[in-house]
Amino acid sequence: MRRMMSEEESKKFIEEMFANAMKLEDFEIGKPFMMSKREWLCVDKGTWCVIAIQLGPRDMTQVLVDESGERTETTKVVTITAEDCKGPPYGWGCSVIDEYDFPACSKIDE
User: Fold this and answer.
1) Parent domain of 71
2) Which of 21, 45, 64, 79 lies 20 to 30 Å (CA to CA) from residue 15?
3) What's the pTM?
């Protein structure tokens, strides 16, 4: 049976969780970082948020409709690397990373 953390244990847990959290000034355009066990690439940085593209494998579906209206879908796995993210414009969807997401982000050792 699980027990609840004491107030002291809870404070220590939260301090440890935020100890390695990235801050806005830690993000650099063109540099990868980790968020929730996935690699991301910072492509823009504002006054309060970061714009990033998730790197790694993902499904990509192409939908074609011929002249008769028949629809054909082709799905394949593509792997996105930092070299694929030259832009703007980018060929991949971007995500907004803000202060609520920063605790889940960590630097990648170079």
Assistant:
1) 7-107
2) 45
3) 0.69
